[in-house]
């Protein structure tokens, strides 16, 4: 919105930094990869950028800010009298009487400092010359403000910051925790789907997202294709949901792959919080949070792969996860696919827009027919 509609936004390199390092959990004898699972922007302040990043176990809160690097171009040392490693030659004589200070201290260490590179001549400097400081170019510096660790037994799949600017959630397969940005050693468990007996486990949490405007509302999806909307005002532990969104399968359509491809890999709220977008293996679904009877729109993403589900299961491609997003004005939705391709659909009433774009270094957009999509390289 900052530019006319004819101009496309251009992204240029800004900076980079190492967020996570490989770790080893000695209690569980488990290697923790440095691979980043999620990144979320936080509210900016004083021209600095703030973001949350997480790997499988540890969440970090980063501040990225421009810093001016100052350099000293001239020292208060007369170059003509410099000797050795930049020190000034001393004219003091070892046989000369040692000057004493009024309180009884001796300045002998100032005159004869054989262990130091710098010495002050007898009588001091005739004049004080201050260093001349020149400011060089500005550089972006990333600093880790907080580390939120040791709160998840399973791999973290989601983080989402709250609209209140003070809290955020992190989710793994069985639990969702609520954090305060300023408190790194304490979190509150608000959702726990772990059964008493793990053999009774039927579904896991796959994604979680805060409502963009209502700080008390959040949604999370499951491997069974359902989305639950919960209200933090109801209870401290949100065992029950305010609303449940799931699509009933058509009679006779169930197969071995039905539950696998129904698993939701990502959910996103629209900017106004009215609609919720979900992504499963085959489709994108747009939900109205005021209507839990079914999705208002369904967009076919991988329908051409339906005859190949057996092959996809054998090479584990059927378990690949894809993310989704909505445009700022809510008129389009997008999701990733295979072979560096992503799909864009129009979701305005009456829209039939369905575009396939390729993510490449060449910004020219071109149409790619479905037959060229291959599930070999997610």
Automatic annotation (TrEMBL):
Keyword Ligase assigned: no
Keywords: Repeat, WD repeat
InterPro entries noted in UniProt: PP2A_PR55, PP2A_PR55_CS, WD40/YVTN_repeat-like_dom_sf, WD40_repeat_dom_sf, WD40_rpt
CC annotations in GO: protein phosphatase type 2A complex
Keyword hit for Repeat: yes
Pfam families: WD40
Single GO term (MF): protein phosphatase regulator activity
Family to which the UniProt record says this protein belongs: Belongs to the phosphatase 2A regulatory subunit B family.
Subunit structure and binding partners: PP2A consists of a common heteromeric enzyme, composed of a catalytic subunit (subunits C), a constant regulatory subunit (subunit A), and a variety of regulatory subunits such as subunits B (the R2/B/PR55/B55, R3/B''/PR72/PR130/PR59 and R5/B'/B56 families). Interacts with SIC/RON3.
Entry function: The B regulatory subunit may modulate substrate selectivity and catalytic activity, and may also direct the localization of the catalytic enzyme to a particular subcellular compartment.
Name the UniProt record assigns to this protein: Serine/threonine-protein phosphatase 2A 55 kDa regulatory subunit B
Originating species: Linum tenue
């Amino acid at each position: 919105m900052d530019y006319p509609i004819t101009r496309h936004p251009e992204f240029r390199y800004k900076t980079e930094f190492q967020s996570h390092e490989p770790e080893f959990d000695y209690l569980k004898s488990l290697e923790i990869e440095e691979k980043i699972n999620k990144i979320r922007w936080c509210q900016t302040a004083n021209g600095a950028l703030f973001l949350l990043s997480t790997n499988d176990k540890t969440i970090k809160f980063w501040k990225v800010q421009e810093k001016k690097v100052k350099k000293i171009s001239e020292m208060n040392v007369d170059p003509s009298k410099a000797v050795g490693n930049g020190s000034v030659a001393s004219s003091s004589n070892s046989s000369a009487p040692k000057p004493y200070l009024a309180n009884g201290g001796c300045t002998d260490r100032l005159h004869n400092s054989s262990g130091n590179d710098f010495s002050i001549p007898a009588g001091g400097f005739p004049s004080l010359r201050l260093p001349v400081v020149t400011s060089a170019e500005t550089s972006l510096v990333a600093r880790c403000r907080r580390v939120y660790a040791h709160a998840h037994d399973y791999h973290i799949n989601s983080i989402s910051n709250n609209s209140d600017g003070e809290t955020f959630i992190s989710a793994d397969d069985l639990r969702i925790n609520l954090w305060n940005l300023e408190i790194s050693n304490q979190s509150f468990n608000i959702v726990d789907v772990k059964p008493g007996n793990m053999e009774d486990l039927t579904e896991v949490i796959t994604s979680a997202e805060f409502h963009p405007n209502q700080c008390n509302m959040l949604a999370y999806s499951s491997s069974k294709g359902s989305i639950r909307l919960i209200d933090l005002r109801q209870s401290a532990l949100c065992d029950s949901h305010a609303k449940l969104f799931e699509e009933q399968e058509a009679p006779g359509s169930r197969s071995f792959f039905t539950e696998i491809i129904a698993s939701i890999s990502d959910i996103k709220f629209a900017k106004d919080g009215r609609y919720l977008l979900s992504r499963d293996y085959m489709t994108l679904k747009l939900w109205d949070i005021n209507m839990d009877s079914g999705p208002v729109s369904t967009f076919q993403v991988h329908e051409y792969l339906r005859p190949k589900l057996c092959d996809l299961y054998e090479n584990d491609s059927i378990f690949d996860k894809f993310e989704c997003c909505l445009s700022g004005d809510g008129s389009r939705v997008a999701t990733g696919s295979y072979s560096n391709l992503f799909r864009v659909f129009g979701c305005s009433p009456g829209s039939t827009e369905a575009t396939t774009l390729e993510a490449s270094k060449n910004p020219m957009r071109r149409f790619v027919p479905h037959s060229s999509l291959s599930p070999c390289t997610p």
